[in-house]
Specification:
Layout: E1 2-6, H1 12-21, E2 25-29, H2 33-40, H3 52-62, E3 65-68, H4 71-76, E4 80-83, E5 88-89, E6 95-96, H5 98-110, E7 116-119, H6 127-140, E8 149-152, H7 162-168, E9 171-175, H8 178-191, E10 206-208, H9 212-242, H10 247-254, H11 277-284, H12 289-299, H13 301-311, E11 321-325, H14 340-350, E12 354-358, H15 364-369, E13 373-374, E14 383-386, E15 406-409, E16 423-426
Parallel strand pairs: 1-2, 1-4, 2-3, 4-7, 7-8, 9-10, 11-12, 11-14, 12-13, 14-15, 15-16
Antiparallel strand pairs: 5-6, 8-9
Helix pairs in contact: 1-3, 5-6, 9-11, 9-12, 13-14
Length: 433
């Protein structure tokens, strides 16, 4: 079985490696020649993905994975094509299909009869049928359902633990035809292995949802649920802090009842998924007021968090040096996509503060390219705001920040007892919690 994975990013490359480790001959296609060269050398092009370095080196050495910049040629040699090319969305919930359109045109040029094409990039409902089908047919001269098959199967993994998540969660899919869905099911059953999940009503494995649209919606629904839940938690956190209540105790108590699953409040919701996919849902369903309100509530949290620091310093941050801990959108991941750092820095500057940023995963030069001054822990600073929950921050104390008067922990990662004599605020708790 020969497979082309189109897009060797933080999801696509681990997928390609997984398929190769399961016995498929895999071609990894990417427009970035640097990525192609690194993969062919058996070297991971990005850090932080568990087991990727060792697995990649092995499958390249064994000859089971080969990278190329020529997508059409790779597709022409493949039985299955798996597409994991980024889709971008603007603040008005409008998808930018540019990269995916280009990749789809390349796939169409190489498409041969008998191939099954599977899109894994999260999409608005209906995109597989109404956009990719006609584009592939026009570019290839072939007919979907007769000459080739088209399926949607959303990726459901988290960067940093892709191989673990591939085993843990059911592989959802939906085809434009029953035959296409059956072919995709056979494919995934050969290249994925699944953990036992006694908590599920049906066995863990490949789940055919009956249509591409159902599969597209399932991914949007599970991610939008998280955004709405976090938005609700942030609303609870604001109210609790304003009324001297520790919202984390409230959430723990509420979640002791099996029908309550409240998430945790925090300074920001970042990454490629949770801030983005609700916007894709809104593109299909602009009247979804609950989704829109939650997305706005979460987008407002960096400003709210900086406001806590401003209020503790007389209403603004003029003349204050403010260190933001964490450029990444979450701990242990070197990624700034939709990170809360951008809105946090903007809010600090609007309040008159001088901003410096620290992140153990980025060099000073890398931080400088974002237009921030790099901060080294141990340097004097007036205010500290925790934006990412890197493990390196857990043991920090006030001695690490000479002159600090205010700390706002946006991730509830610091130990309050390490900051005696400092105004210490936690999103959702307040100073006295």
């Amino acid at each position: 079985m020969q497979v082309t994975v189109v897009g060797l990013g933080k999801i696509g490359l681990p997928l390609a490696v997984q398929f190769a480790r399961s016995g498929a001959k895999v071609f990894g296609a990417d427009v970035n020649q640097v990525v192609v060269d690194l993969v062919n050398a058996g070297r991971e092009p990005f850090p932080g993905e568990a087991h990727l370095a060792e697995y990649l080196a092995q499958v390249v050495s064994d000859g089971n994975l080969e990278a190329t910049a020529d997508t059409a040629e790779a597709v022409s040699k493949s039985d299955y094509v798996v597409v994991v090319v980024p889709l971008f969305v603007d603040d008005e919930a409008r998808p930018d299909f540019g990269w995916m359109d280009s990749a789809t045109d390349d796939i169409a040029r190489g498409l041969k009869p008998g191939t099954t094409v599977i899109y894994e990039t999260t999409l608005p409902v209906g995109t597989t049928r109404t956009r990719w089908k006609p584009r592939l047919e026009e570019g290839s001269g072939l007919t979907e359902g007769a000459d080739f098959h088209l399926v949607f199967s959303p990726e459901r993994v988290l960067t940093g633990r892709v191989f673990e998540d591939l085993r843990k969660y059911p592989k959802l899919l939906g085809g434009l035809s029953d035959e296409g869905a059956a072919k995709a099911t056979t494919f995934y059953e050969q290249v994925l292995q699944f953990d036992e999940r006694p908590d599920l009503k049906r066995p863990n494995g490949v789940w055919d949802l009956g249509s591409a649209e159902a599969s597209e919606m399932a991914k949007l629904a599970e991610t939008t649920y998280r955004d709405v839940n976090i938005g609700l938690a942030n609303q609870f956190g604001k109210f609790a802090a304003a009324n001297g209540i520790d919202v984390f105790q409230v959430i723990e108590a509420s979640n002791s009842q099996p029908y309550s699953h409240i998430h945790s409040p925090g300074i920001a919701v970042g990454g490629h998924c949770i801030p983005v996919y609700p916007r894709l849902y809104l593109w299909n369903d602009p009247d979804a007021t609950v989704v829109r309100a939650a997305r706005q509530a979460n987008a407002d949290m960096p400003s709210y968090t900086v406001g806590l620091a401003s209020a503790a310093n007389g209403g603004d941050l003029k003349g204050k040096k403010v260190a933001v801990l964490g450029a990444s959108y979450r701990g242990a991941v070197k990624e700034t996509a939709f990170s809360g750092v951008f809105a946090t820095v903007a809010a600090i500057r609007e309040a008159g503060g001088e901003v410096v940023v620290n992140d153990p995963m980025y060099s000073d030069d890398e931080l400088d390219t974002f237009g921030w001054g790099a901060y080294t822990i141990g340097e004097p600073v007036d205010v500290v705001i925790v934006q990412a929950d890197h493990a390196e921050y857990k043991s920090l104390t006030k001695a690490d920040f000479p002159g600090v008067s205010t700390v706002v922990d946006g991730r509830r990662i610091l130990d309050r007892s390490n900051f005696d004599g400092v105004t210490f605020l936690v999103v959702g708790q307040g100073e006295q919690a």
